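re: ur question from earlier - yeah i can do the single chain one, its not a big deal. heres the input i used so u can compare w yours
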Amino acid sequence: MSREQIESMIKTVETLLAEAEQLKNRCRRQNQDVTLILEQLQQENRELAQNYEQAEQEMEAIRKALAELMDAKIAFEARERQVRKLSKQL
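and the output i got, formated as tokens:
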């Protein structure tokens, strides 16, 4: 190998090493970005789970209130029929 070929190969290796270092740094930054995004998504997931749980509790309260209202409506309608029936008897 000639001196020029050796110097050319050294420059190529140096270039490759510099590129590898740049890639390593870029990967490190991207890893940090991904870690940050993952933490944010985990926080959002926790918040969504809490919101879902709260919504479930509110829906259960609404279902109970609706059932109570339906019971009251049915009782009222039954009394109404009773009043009509008694009114006809008078």
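The helical segments are 3-89. not sure if urs matches, ping me
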